[in-house]
Input
Amino acid sequence: MVTSSSSRALDREACLQLIRSSRTVAMVEEAHSKARHLLPLDVFVSNMLVQRYGRCGSVEHARRVFDSIPEKNFFSWVSLLGAYAANGRLDEAASVFNGMPEWNSVACTAMLVGYAQNGQLEKARGVFWSMKQRDLASWNAFLAVLVNERQDHRLLEARKLFETMPARDVVTWTTLLGAYAQRNHLFNTKDLFDSMPVRDLISCTAMLGAYEDSGDLRNASFVFKSMEERDIISCSALLAVYAQEGHLEQALKHYHSMPELNVISCTTMITVYSKNRLVNQAQQLFDSMPEHNLVSRTSMLCVFTLNDRLEEAKHEFDKMPEWNSVAITALISLYARSGYSLSFLESSGVALDTMASTALLIGYAQDGHLEAAKSVFDSIPACDAVVRTSMLSSYALLGNVRGGERVFLSAPEQDDFVLWNAMLAAYAQNGHSTQVLELFFTMVLLGLKVPPDGASFLSILLACSHLGRVQTGWSCFVSMAMDYGLQPLKQHYNCFVDLLCRTGFLAEARELIQIMPFDADGVEWRSYLRSSVEAGNTVVENLDVCKRDSPGAYVLLANLHKNRQGGMAFAWKKGRSSLPD
Output
């Protein structure tokens, strides 16, 4: 009976199943010991052991099994190559590759994937283009290599490769589609999705994710309804669109219709409650969840922080078994916003990464503690452009422009346009208008990798308004669209109207207010009104436009007419009839 039982335990299929299910080196060793009676003659079992040892991180064990195989087949070599490549041992992988009795597309694909996984794109490219024969799997593998680089020029290269491929399957289409979706290239994602000959669950879910990122609920719903197959991921993706847009009723209906729920779907529903400021409902759902992970706990913490529930937020933070950057940053922001001391960090023993340190830095600055912010800045071991921009903005917030200049000039990222914009804003917000112009034109002359954007021009127009530089302001306003392809926003029009009014070009200001592609409100008419008592009549004609937006416009109008009794009586009567109670 013992022998029979032992034989059943060492059955070939049972051994293979044991090998496949092994997740640690120790488990593979145990499976290996139970399969010894099959080795080394059973090459398939030996190859499985080589693969599994490699996936569990022990290339030495994998090599020993490989060396023990008396008659190695092609998959023996590929299994060892993959074991070395997966563990970053590229020299040994290349040695195995070069020592193979023959190469085919499978071996070459394994080698190029190994190079790509370890950041050696050019070597991966060399292997691919040196292949004598490429099958669809190798084309798909190299396409995946390019899109995984997460750089726009690589994505462009991937699209060109896609167009030249001799054949494509659903994997090909989905690989490129997913890359476009992850980078928020909605137009390209939709264009590719619409061109797909066959759509599967993965491609439809990727398209849902793209619509989620853009907040396009109508198209997301259309894709979801057209899906022949759905799973918990696709259902959660549509729920996430409802969450992003804050559609409570639709979200609840969809949530309760889902065939199954998991941590992701429950966490997403918590976000919906948060956006609708339903803290108690979010708490009830969170408490009813059978299990929590770091993401769900962080989401519940964010519910409290976004709704200024400091005590509950700190309580949830203290219960978390571990913290991530989002949780730490959310709590820091709430403390700073509420005006409380940030000393809780010391008592909690929180280890800050760069993101959390940046939030702490901003929190101290908003609370007026510049030295504490500077201390956090100095303690960050590797400051990037985001950290430097935050420190620069903190100096500007507290009126220390010279401190901001020191951060700007010491930054190695001199081509980072966000940093330049922060310096422009620092000058503009603190009345250093001449320096704004000088820095902007320096920025243009240097020809940074990223050209000026809307924020850059907002600082320029603000400076021109304060300096009364009409010609310069007009040139920059026109240059936005003509030279940089930027559509001026309402804030740009406000600044330019203010510039025209300050410099006495009232007719031009009035014309701009009337033709701009936005509805004029109290902001524009207040600028116009301040410029001349004679402008009062025009504003009186437009009081209905200002209506409840700006009661101050009526007060200003009455003051301007105080020495003109008839005009004042008319303006005040007209104003009082429209003022809010």
User: Anything to note?
Assistant: The longest helix spans residues 201-214. Residues 311 and 457 are 42 Å apart (CA to CA). The chain has 38 helices and no strands. Confidence is low (pLDDT under 50) at residues 1-9, 534-549, 560-581.
